[in-house]
Design goal:
Number of helices: 18
Largest sheet: 2 strands, antiparallel
Domain Hs1pro-1 C-terminal: 207-462
Strand content: under 5%
Domain Nematode resistance protein-like HSPRO1 N-terminal: 1-204
GO molecular function, one term: heme binding
CATH architecture of the domain at 49-144 and 228-462: Up-down Bundle
Shape: globular
Order of helices and strands: HHHHEEEHHEHHHHHHHHHHHH
Helix content: 40-55%
Structural class: mainly alpha
Radius of gyration: 27 Å
InterPro entries: Hs1pro-1_C (IPR009743), HSPRO1/HSPRO2 (IPR038759), HSPRO1_N (IPR009869), Trp/Indoleamine_2_3_dOase-like (IPR037217)
Region (Disordered): 460-479
Low-confidence stretches: 1-26, 30-37, 150-161, 163-167, 431-435, 470-479
Mean pLDDT: 84
CATH class of the domain at 49-144 and 228-462: Mainly Alpha
């Protein structure tokens, strides 16, 4: 039996004269942990001037127009899938940039491996988004696809179709291939052929559970319909933004930084759209779908950390020279560099705000007197195992918290390696023993979900007094 009256059952700090006797009640003492300068607060973006300069450098206003353009009124997933596909297309351009680098000291081998890994991670996320779309009756079948069965095996010779033979039944499958995407061209360039082929096979493997494929030249052995990739992604318009306003700077790392952050901002925008959908689905009691979205957000945070890690491969001298050429540091600006991204700050706030959805998920109201009402409801939910969809969602919410904190911790380490600890400290990234800056606070602050944390603590303690057969343990202490 779990004793939920935990306030009255706390162990006294004064030791008793007699040895304590085990009871069927739960007795847990939680030590008070002091967090100097740490509290659950929200990050603040850098100054408007600095944020605007960052957006101007990345041409974000133009990118946002492409992200937010609505062209398919019946396709609800458009606002999520379109920026994801555009991030993937920018990555194809990054492949070309890396493999075209003529510097003899560039670590091309590791760059190639990281770009392949990054591309695969994005394809996995895109495939998961499409799978979820197919499982939802309100979004199933709404994507703009080209159904190749209507061609009846006729091969069009205008360069937009390719023929693929399917052995079982000796049937012919006509697979539509994008004309504007850079990936099919990379597959014909000797320098990038092996990288492009690996990406194409990754698309084929990851899209196996999806009702349609991307149409980028992958084998499409199952003869699936293909997405109207050129119409959705607009590769020509994406590649029209390949040059930054500071393209006149003669520094190879300029293009690397510019492209890396365009990919980063695209996925931040995807996360923003999914967070909005999570809120809507929790409000409509679609807990299973909301948990799927939460796990997507967790994976996006991990992807953002993978993108930031690319800075570690940039040449130190070239990168620091670029930093000076771009005048990235302002003596009056103490916010971390990542807080120049307004949408990154926004999704960080939104993810933390999800903690207010816990009472709604549990079906209880917050006790105005501060009682353990939410904790007790969570303990019942975990132990009864009836409403498992709610358990999925609560676990996913805590997974987001873990991924968010890992991202900012990893970002701090990347920044220290990229520009040095002294410069990082001057930028307000490294905290002293007397204070805690806004970045460090994000991964050191207490849990966003104290009631869930307490519920697991007490539930775990109660289980520790049980034997596998349900018999209470006997105290080894002599009575």
């Amino acid at each position: 039996m779990i004793d939920l009256d935990w306030k009255a059952k706390m162990v006294s700090s004064d030791p008793p004269n007699k040895p304590p006797r085990l009871s069927s009640k739960l007795h847990v003492s939680i030590p008070a942990i002091q967090f100097r300068g740490i509290s659950n607060t929200y990050p603040i973006p850098a100054s408007d001037t600095v944020c605007s300069a960052y957006e101007y450098y990345l041409r974000l206003p133009e990118l946002r127009k492409l992200w937010n353009r609505k062209e398919f009124s019946d396709w609800k997933t458009e606002s999520i899938l379109k920026p994801a596909l555009q991030a993937l297309e920018i990555t194809f351009r990054f492949v070309s940039t890396v493999l075209s680098d003529k510097r003899p000291y560039a670590n091309r081998r590791e760059w190639t491996r990281r770009i392949e890994s990054l591309t695969t991670s994005q394809i996995e996320l895109i495939a998961s988004i499409i799978e979820d779309e197919a499982e939802d009756s309100t979004t199933r079948g709404t994507a703009p696809i080209a159904d190749l069965s209507s061609t009846e095996g006729v091969l069009v010779r205008d360069g937009s179709y390719a023929e693929v033979w399917k052995v079982p039944g000796e049937t012919t499958v006509v697979n539509k291939t994008s004309e504007a995407s850079l990936l099919p061209r990379l597959a014909t360039w000797q320098t990038s052929e092996d990288v492009a082929q690996k990406i194409l096979y990754s698309i084929e493997c990851e899209m196996r559970r999806c009702p349609y494929t991307l149409g980028l030249g992958e084998p499409n052995l199952n003869g699936k319909p293909t997405l109207e990739y050129d119409t959705v992604c607009r590769p020509n318009e994406i590649h029209a933004l390949k040059k930054s306003p500071y393209d006149h700077i003669k520094n190879q790392e300029n293009q690397s930084v510019y492209t890396t952050h365009q990919i980063l901002e695209s996925w931040i925008h995807v996360a923003k759209q999914i967070i909005q959908r999570v809120t809507e689905r929790i409000g409509s009691k679609e807990f299973s779908k909301a948990s799927n979205d939460c796990y997507l957000i967790e994976r996006i945070w991990k992807l953002l950390a993978e993108i930031e890690d690319l800075h570690l491969l940039m040449d130190p001298d070239d990168f620091l020279r670029l930093k000076n050429q771009l005048q990235m540091r302002s003596l009056d600006e103490k916010s971390p560099y990542c807080f120049r991204s307004r949408e990154l700050v926004e999704i960080t706030r939104s993810c933390k705000e999800l903690k207010h959805k816990v009472p709604e998920v549990l079906g209880v109201e917050v006790d105005p007197k501060g009682g353990p009402r939410i904790q007790e409801a969570a303990m019942r939910l975990y132990s009864e195992k009836r409403e498992f969809q709610k358990v999925y969602l609560l676990q996913a919410l805590q997974a987001i918290e873990g991924a968010l904190k890992r991202f900012f911790y990893a970002y701090q380490q990347v920044l220290v390696v990229a520009i040095g600890s002294l410069e990082a400290k001057g930028n307000g990234v490294l905290a002293s023993s007397e204070s805690c800056d806004s970045l460090t606070q994000l991964f050191l602050e207490p849990t966003y979900f104290p009631s869930l944390d307490a519920a697991k603590t007490f539930l775990g303690e109660s289980r520790s007094h049980e034997q596998p057969n349900g018999v209470e343990r006997r105290s080894r202490r002599k009575q």
